[in-house]
Amino acid sequence: MTEYESYVLREWELFMADPRRASASLEAVKGLEVRRVLDVGCGAGQELLPFVAEGRATGVGVDIAAEVGRTGRELFSRQAPQARVSFAQATAEALPFLPESFDVVVCRVALPYMDNARALSEMARVLRPGGAFLLKIHHARFYLRKLGGGLKGLRPLSMLHALRVLTAGAIYHMTRRQPRTRLPSTETFQSAWLLRRELSRRGLFIERQLEDGDRATPSFVIIKEGEAP
After folding, report:
1. What Cα–Cα distance (Å) separates residue 25 from each residue in 19, 208, 220?
2. pTM above threshold 0.85
C-alpha cells in the first residue's frame, strides 16, 4: 500500500467513525434536489457517501493523485455496494466536465493547495444554478497554530512552512494575487472575507457558515446564483 493509499484509508475511517459529518452534509443541502455530486480532492471519496448511499445520487470523485479511485472503489464495493460512484484523475483548475453538470460540489481542505482563482472558476462552472458548493478551508489560524506547535516542539521545518504559507496568504489578501512560486509558497490560507470577494466574481455567495467546531478550518455552504433548470 502506498503512502497516499494509507492516507486516504485513514481519512475514510475517520469519516465513518463520526456519523455527524454525514448528517451535516445532508443538512447543508436540505431541500435541494441532488442527483449528481462532485468531490474535488476526493481521496477515497468518503465525502460522497451521504449522497450516494443506497443509490440516491451519482457521485464523481477527482484527485490529482495517479492512484485516485484505487482504494475508493474497493471501499465502496465493500461498504456501500449500491452506490454509483466513479473516479477520475484531474486537477481542480481543469475539470473534465460540462458546464452545470452537478447539483453539489464538495471541496474539503484542498483549496489551500490549488490555484484558487482557477479552481473556484472551474468549480463554479460545473455547478448548476441554485446548486450548493460545500467548502472547507484552512484559515490563517491553522498555520498560526502550526507555527506555535513548531516553536514549542522545536521543529524548524514546520515553523518555516507555516511562515511561508502565512506570508503567501497575506500577499494574496492584500494584492488579490495568489503567489504561485515556491517562495514564499504556492500554498495559501483563506478567509471568509477573501472568499466573498473571489466567489462574487463567479456568481457564488456564502449562504452560511457551518458549525464546524474548529475555527482554524471553517466550513461554508455556498450557493450559485440563478434558478435551477
Report:
1. 10, 13, 11
2. yes
